[in-house]
Write a structure and sequence with these properties.
Layout (H helix, E strand, L loop, with lengths): L1 H8 L2 H48 L2 H12 L14 E6 L14 H13 L10 E6 L7 E13 L5 E11 L1 H74 L9 H28 L7 E3 L1 H17 L3 E7 L4 E3 L1 H17 L6 E9 L2 E8 L6 H4 L11 H6 L6 H11 L3 E6 L5 E8 L15
Parallel strand pairs: 6-8
Antiparallel strand pairs: 1-4, 2-3, 3-4, 5-7, 8-9, 9-11, 10-11
Length: 453
């Protein structure tokens, strides 16, 4: 058992599980990174929107800029400190990009801030009419954070002349920055937590997507192994029988009739097996329903044939039909289905056994019931009865010509009709198969690789 598990784990299909996990994990990583970037960008734009709009308004306020320029040029009276708020600072640059002596609209402490702000800033003509962010070193605590706008301005001098200058308008955003840092911490922490969770989800999805494939793979292996085993037995018998013929080269056909008969019997079994295997392979890719108008006479002819076969086998057959009008059925598939069930009942009933087949239509459902008074099937075997090559009693079934493929074919036909087949105990003894197929919604049964097995 350990060798089998080790072999499965080392198979190409299982190894591909790592690739599936990597694909899912990378997809989740890209999604979370993109989501985090988008959320942070949108949040920044929202938080800075009012500040940026205020900077644009101040850059268009001629009175504000003129007052600020007079403060820095020293032409304002001491009482006139400008009408801009304490969170705003202004630096003017001459045409050569050199700043004027710093001044502020607030008290001396603000001049201290503006002085450090001036030391940290350099005029860049490429930044004209654009809003940027800057952090200024605070020797006594946390850094100051500003948003600023660079633009042109014309100063009206006292003597009536004008001076073209450049101006940078600053707005302190320390509070916004603190809120932004806290929000970013929450966002990044949440994204990392979900990103780590995506590892578990990726492993689950990789395993989940491979489950039906692995199941189909194991069923395929089992099918090939069982088919090889079934072929090995008749081939061995044929080899032994032919070797016996060579041991008596002078014997007549009558003398070796037993060996010849057994060889022919095994050849017939091999032919039946290969035919059923071919049918299974064809059915696996999908059964195409080809309905045609069908009346009660179709089933009456089947009943007549089954009655004759049962009589030849020393058993009795009873057919009950409750069908009015015409229905659409794939007559070849339905006959194959009923023949499989009838043949199964014929094999597993004793001499003078009784077999019955009931056909009735209930709304859009056609119900078949095939019952016998044979050996019956245990509850444990009922769960496996539709598996390929499964036989309740392999030794006795081989003697009766059973290969364990008939009921598997029957179930595929029922599935193609989107129907259901069940096996029950027949009171007081025997087995009863009940089939319900839909007449209004037949489907083509696709390969079941991605269906739950």
């Amino acid at each position: 058992m350990k060798k089998v598990i080790k072999k499965i784990k080392s198979s190409a299909i299982v190894k591909n599980d790592g690739k599936n996990f990597l694909h899912f994990f990378l997809a989740f990583t890209v999604i979370f990174v993109a989501l985090a970037v988008i959320i942070i960008q949108v949040m920044q734009l929202g938080m800075y929107r009012a500040t940026d709009q205020n900077l644009r308004d101040l850059s268009q306020n001629q009175a504000f800029l003129q007052d600020a320029a007079n403060n820095q040029l020293g032409t304002n009276s001491p009482q006139s400190r400008g009408d801009y708020g304490p969170n705003n600072s202004v630096i003017f640059y001459n045409s050569d990009g050199e700043s004027f002596m710093p001044s502020s609209s607030t008290a001396q402490s603000s001049d201290f801030v503006l002085t450090h702000l001036q030391k940290s800033m350099k005029f860049k003509e490429s930044q004209l009419n654009s809003i940027s962010s800057v952090s200024v070193n605070n020797p006594y605590g946390d850094d100051w954070h500003y948003r600023y706008l660079t633009s042109r301005f014309i100063i009206n001098n006292v003597d009536g002349s004008i001076t073209p200058v450049y101006v940078q308008i600053f707005s302190n955003v320390d509070q916004i920055q603190d809120a932004m840092s806290r929000a970013m911490f929450v966002i990044i922490t949440t994204m990392i937590a979900f990103w780590l969770l995506s590892v578990v989800i990726s492993l689950y999805l990789a395993n989940w997507t491979l489950k039906p494939i692995l199941s189909a793979y194991e069923k395929q292996k089992e099918f090939v192994e069982n088919a090889s085993h079934e072929l090995r037995t008749p081939l061995a018998i044929l080899q032994n029988r032919l070797e016996l013929l060579f041991q008596n080269p002078t014997s007549t056909i009558i003398d070796e009739s037993e060996n010849i008969s057994e060889s022919l019997s095994e050849v017939r079994n091999m032919r039946l097996l290969t035919t059923n295997l071919l049918n299974l392979a064809r059915r696996e890719s999908g059964i195409k329903i080809s309905p045609e108008p069908t009346t009660a006479s179709y089933f009456e002819n089947i009943f007549s044939s089954y009655e004759m076969l049962a009589e030849n086998a020393g058993k009795s057959f009873t057919g009950n039909l409750k069908l009015d009008g015409t229905i659409n059925l794939d007559q070849a598939l339905i006959k194959q289905l009923l023949t499989i069930l009838f043949d199964n009942a014929l094999k597993y009933t004793h001499d003078n056994g009784e077999i019955s087949l009931d056909v009735q239509k209930a709304g859009g459902i056609l119900i078949f019931t095939v019952a016998d008074n044979g050996e019956g099937i245990s509850d444990e075997d009922k769960k496996k009865i539709f598996d390929r090559f499964f036989r309740v009693d392999k030794a006795r079934t081989r003697q009766k010509g059973g290969l364990g493929l008939g009921l598997s074919l029957a179930k595929q036909i029922v599935d193609a009709y989107n129907g259901k087949i069940t096996v029950e105990d027949n009171k007081p003894q025997g087995t009863k198969f009940v089939i319900r197929i839909r007449l209004d919604n037949p489907i083509t049964n696709p390969a079941k690789i991605f269906q739950k097995l």
